[in-house]
Write a structure and sequence with these properties.
With 285 residues, the protein is of the alpha/beta class. The chain has two domains: 175 residues, no CATH class; 93 residues, 2-Layer Sandwich (Nucleotidyltransferase, domain 5). Helix content is 57%, strand content 17%. The protein contains nine helices and eight strands. It has a four-stranded mixed sheet. The protein has a four-stranded mixed sheet with strand order 6-5-7-8, with helices on one face. Helix 2 runs parallel beside helix 6. The longest helix is centred in the middle third of the chain and has 37 residues. The protein is elongated, with a radius of gyration of 30 Å. The termini are far apart. This is Putative sporulation protein YtxC.
Length: 285
């Protein structure tokens, strides 16, 4: 008969760790093994001594299961705490609501790539198993700090990217508000403008009777299109703001109309915008 004891220490999520380790021990007990767990506070830490005995292959199975539990906790609760701590410490100049938004952006990035999540879990599981094969005491917080530096550095990078996304989104929203102001203070120069995108990606504007809009106040924009690096979407928004029509109909055609452009038009012109998917102008696309 063989036996093994592992002592797992933590400063955070004590009850969650206790519950999950207890479930693993009960699973081993159901297999006929003798198990016990003792809780021992030590300073700011809580140590859970997990022991199992009986059978011939206790040690490798027990070590792997304990490592699996801790891996799940690190990539779950501890990851969230680490991310919040990184944002709070490195980006202290944002208010609480902004930090919360940055955290949400970071979580979206982390959850977007399932392959990376699985690779992280396998890598952490391997590091934990290797450590527990030679050590019977483990402090989770210290293990993360000193033996999972690459994982923590990745979280720093994700937080940096989330801040960039947050600032870009804020600048975009401020820009939209400025454009809306321009629209509101201008007198409309047309009753209705139809927006159509040609197959080559160029936008064309038509009036309420289907006539192509190419009046004097758009000539400068046509020159920009030929001589500068302004993109077609910027040109379209600028032209629409210059005309400031009472109504805008966006003809979606075969569905290739850029979603980002439609979103910007809708935000700038609000209830002036409607969408069409089945008229003669749509069929031109």
């Amino acid at each position: 008969m063989t036996s093994q004891c592992l002592s797992i220490g933590t400063a955070y999520h004590k009850e969650l760790l206790k519950d999950t380790l207890g479930q693993e021990l009960m699973a081993l007990k159901d297999k006929g093994l003798d198990v016990r767990m003792e809780e021992n506070p030590a300073g700011g830490l809580t140590f859970l001594a997990c022991c199992v005995s009986g059978g011939d292959q206790v040690e490798p199975v027990f070590t792997h299961q304990i490592a699996g539990v801790i891996t799940d906790l690190i990539t779950g609760k501890w990851k969230d705490k680490l991310l919040r701590d990184i944002i709070r410490t490195n980006y202290y100049y944002f208010d609480d609501e902004e930090k919360g938004t940055i955290y949400d952006y970071a979580q979206q990035k982390l959850n977007h790539n399932e392959n990376n999540k699985e690779k992280d879990k396998l890598w952490i599981l391997r590091r934990l198993t290797e450590y527990l094969n030679f050590n019977s005491d483990l402090v989770i917080d210290g293990f993360i700090r000193f033996r999972l530096k690459e994982y923590v550095n990745d979280l720093y990078n994700v937080a940096d990217q989330a801040v960039d996304d947050f600032l870009s989104e804020r600048e975009y929203n401020e820009f939209i508000q400025l454009l809306r102001y321009f629209v509101e203070i201008q007198d409309p120069r047309a009753e209705l403008v139809n927006v159509v995108m040609r197959p080559d990606g160029v936008f064309q504007l038509y009036d309420e009777v289907g006539g192509f809009i190419n009046s004097d106040y758009l000539k400068d924009f046509m020159a920009d299109l030929a001589e500068s690096e302004i993109n077609y979407e910027d040109l379209l928004i600028s032209a629409l703001i210059t005309i400031s029509p009472r109504k805008i109909t966006v003809h979606l055609g075969n569905g290739d109309f850029p979603a980002g452009t439609l979103e910007t038009i809708s935000k700038v012109f609000a209830d002036r915008v409607s969408k069409c998917q089945g008229c003669s102008l749509c069929r031109q696309q």
